[in-house]
């Protein structure tokens, strides 16, 4: 894999209006403010890195955008649907892959694809077609009748990613998708992400790997429920006068109060 | 409906690969039915009898023989005094003591009325009740028939009223006829409610529920997809159970079996819906299981199978009106043994239908795709 150019977003993003918009989006659990008035926009086809220490509020924010968690106040839209009023409509237009592996381990590769295809309302012929294509692309054709539980973690995650894209969503939310896999598999995973982005899918990704942050078109860094920085990786490094994303992250995260 | 089909397909595939759950659903109820139907027995045999015979007359001996001719009593001790026999009772050697007083024969011949004393160990009051009623009926029968013919002729006018019971719908008072339908629906309810209880919360524990919650699946589709496989399993269990009841236990089937099936189909939605409701509000399987047990124990112990509901205090009976098992057991007995028609059992059937609608609506409502 060649190192992806970070300014690629500019060309892709201009194609359409923003796919995700957030204005002062807030989530409170009692007295605790998990997400504190965050605002940003993500353009179509953009790879948007959502960084922050554990406990900074990344997952909470992402769950709100996916319609899994009701927001407290603010405004947000995903793929043109309102997060407050239409959480179920959002679900038709997004893919989601969480850090907790979420395909059925007691179903085979093909059965998992068929099930999710069916739940998203794909026609039987489309499911069959997409299954073949997907297995081909992942090199899993020989494993199509293997129980997912017996696949190596890296394969599972690539499969989960591809299944989340089955219904051709406008946005895919990836919550630490590469946790616990080896560097080679992570690279392969990012190849898949780039393929998807090239097809116009907006990528919203959280990660703890700073090398992955470099792969993103733009990166936001959350600290204590707020977004403290938002720019291209190059812009961020320039802003903080440092050489790597690692240093940018440490610089910001050091001031955090809510660290797990 | 297409989405429900995909959910069903998935549930069935998972079920097929889960050997222990499959065994629980398909084999366990049959084993339990056979085991419990033979074991849950209201007939008591071989009660230990101690005798204090202070009369030593032929009449006393004949009475004793009457006891020994039945399978219910086994003479274990003969004691000279009540005091010694009481010790047997105390030490658990005897379940009951029969005291035949001196002049038993003389009283019997003279007045036609002789008294014997029964001392019964009432530690287990069901057993005590049965022991004393068996013993009393033997004594009564003896008083009626056991006297010398010549005497009987002279005293016949002093005999008291005799009650001749006629047991309808179960003329031989066969306990299996009474118990098997009840045990069957009880076992089925227990198992289907358990598997439903563990299902949704298991997906929560594994994390797959979140993936489902970001799909556009509708809540009712989800609940229906979870309910149907176990509903079919419940009807399968019922089929096997009815076959066993008919051919192994010879339970009479006077009424319409298809009618009972239809009602059973309605009933099954109650424990299933309740299980799914519990499952969708619980965070862990352990938690769900405890809540489910709480309900199941009440349902089972108060369903009238083990203690007649008529004996319960009014408040308990009021609570028991929410017990679905109470209705289905009553309906099953009435249709199978008495030949009741839908019109006869309409009220309990409508009650079950109402419960099914309520718990399943609650389950759909309480299942949250979007949290707080």
TrEMBL record, chain A:
GO terms for molecular function: ATP binding; ATP hydrolysis activity. Residues 20-249 form the ABC transporter domain. SMART domains: AAA (SM00382). The keyword ATP-binding applies. SUPFAM superfamilies: P-loop containing nucleoside triphosphate hydrolases. InterPro entries: AAA+_ATPase (IPR003593), ABC_transporter-like_ATP-bd (IPR003439), P-loop_NTPase (IPR027417). It comes from the Bacteria. Gene3D superfamilies: P-loop containing nucleotide triphosphate hydrolases. Keywords: ATP-binding, Nucleotide-binding. The keyword Cell membrane does not apply. This is ABC transporter ATP-binding protein. It comes from Hymenobacter jeollabukensis.
TrEMBL record, chain B:
One of its GO terms (cellular component) is plasma membrane. It is a multi-pass membrane protein. This is ABC transporter permease. Pfam families: ABC2_membrane_3. Keywords: Cell membrane, Membrane, Transmembrane, Transmembrane helix, Transport. It is found in: Cell membrane. It comes from the Bacteria. InterPro entries: ABC-2_transporter_component, ABC2_TM, ABC2_TM_bact-type. The chain crosses the membrane at residues 21-40, 178-201, 222-247, 259-281, 288-307, 345-365. Residues 132-370 form the ABC transmembrane type-2 domain. Belongs to the ABC-2 integral membrane protein family. GO terms for molecular function: ABC-type transporter activity.
């Amino acid at each position: 894999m060649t190192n992806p150019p970070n300014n690629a977003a500019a060309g892709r993003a201009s194609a359409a209006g923003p796919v995700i918009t957030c204005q002062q989006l807030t989530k409170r659990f009692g007295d605790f403010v998990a997400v504190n008035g965050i605002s940003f926009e993500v353009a179509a086809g953009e790879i948007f890195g959502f960084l922050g220490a554990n406990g900074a509020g990344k997952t909470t924010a992402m769950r709100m955008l996916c319609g899994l968690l009701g927001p407290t106040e603010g405004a947000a839209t995903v793929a043109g649907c309102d997060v407050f009023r239409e959480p179920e409509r959002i679900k038709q237009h997004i893919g989601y892959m969480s850090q907790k592996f979420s395909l059925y381990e007691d179903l085979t590769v093909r059965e998992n694809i068929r099930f999710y295809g069916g739940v998203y309302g794909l026609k039987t012929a489309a499911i069959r077609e997409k299954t073949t294509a997907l297995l081909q692309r992942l090199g899993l054709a020989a494993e199509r009748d293997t129980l997912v539980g017996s696949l190596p973690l890296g394969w599972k995650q690539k499969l989960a990613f591809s299944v989340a894209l089955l219904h051709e969503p406008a946005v895919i939310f990836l919550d630490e998708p590469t946790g616990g896999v080896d560097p080679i598999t992570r690279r392969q995973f990012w190849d898949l992400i780039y393929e998807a982005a090239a097809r116009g899918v907006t990528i919203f990704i959280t990660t703890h790997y700073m090398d992955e942050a470099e792969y993103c078109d733009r990166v936001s860094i959350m600290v204590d429920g707020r977004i403290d920085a938002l720019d291209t990786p190059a812009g961020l490094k320039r802003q903080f006068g440092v050489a790597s994303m690692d240093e940018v992250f440490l610089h910001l995260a050091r001031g955090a109060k809510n660290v797990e | 409906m297409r989405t429900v089909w995909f959910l069903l397909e998935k549930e069935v595939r998972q079920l097929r690969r889960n050997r222990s759950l499959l065994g629980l659903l398909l084999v366990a109820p049959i084993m339990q039915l056979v085991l419990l139907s033979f074991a849950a027995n209201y007939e008591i045999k071989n009660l230990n009898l101690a005798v204090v015979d202070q009369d030593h007359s032929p009449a006393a001996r004949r009475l004793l023989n009457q006891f020994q001719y039945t399978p219910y009593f086994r003479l274990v001790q003969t004691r000279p005094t009540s005091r010694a026999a009481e010790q047997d009772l105390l030490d658990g050697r005897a379940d009951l003591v029969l005291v035949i007083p001196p002049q038993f024969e003389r009283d019997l011949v003279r007045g036609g009325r002789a008294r014997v004393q029964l001392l019964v160990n009432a530690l287990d009051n069901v057993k005590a009740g049965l022991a004393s009623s068996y013993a009393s009926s033997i004594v009564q029968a003896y008083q009626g028939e056991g006297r010398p013919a010549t005497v009987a002729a002279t005293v016949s006018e002093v005999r008291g009223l005799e009650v001749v019971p006629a047991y309808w719908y179960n003329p031989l008072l066969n306990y299996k006829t009474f118990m098997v339908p009840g045990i069957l629906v009880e076992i089925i309810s227990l198992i289907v409610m358990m598997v439903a209880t563990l299902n949704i919360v298991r997906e929560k524990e594994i994390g797959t529920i979140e993936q489902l919650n970001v799909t556009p699946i509708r809540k009712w589709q989800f609940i229906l997809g979870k309910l149907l496989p176990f509903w079919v399993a419940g009807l399968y269990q019922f089929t096997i159970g009815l076959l066993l009841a008919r051919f192994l236990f010879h339970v009479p089937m006077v009424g319409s079996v298809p009618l009972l099936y239809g009602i059973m189909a309605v009933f099954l939605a109650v424990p299933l819906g309740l299980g799914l409701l519990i499952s969708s509000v619980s965070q862990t399987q352990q938690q769900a299981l405890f809540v489910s047990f709480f309900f199941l124990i009440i349902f089972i112990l108060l369903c009238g199978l083990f203690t007649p509901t008529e004996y319960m205090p009014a408040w308990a009976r009021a609570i028991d009106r929410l017990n679905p098992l109470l209705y289905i057991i009553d309906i099953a007995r009435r249709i199978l043994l008495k030949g009741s028609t839908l019109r006869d059992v309409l009220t309990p059937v409508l009650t079950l239908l109402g419960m099914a609608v309520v718990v399943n609506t609650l389950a759909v409502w309480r299942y949250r795709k979007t949290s707080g």
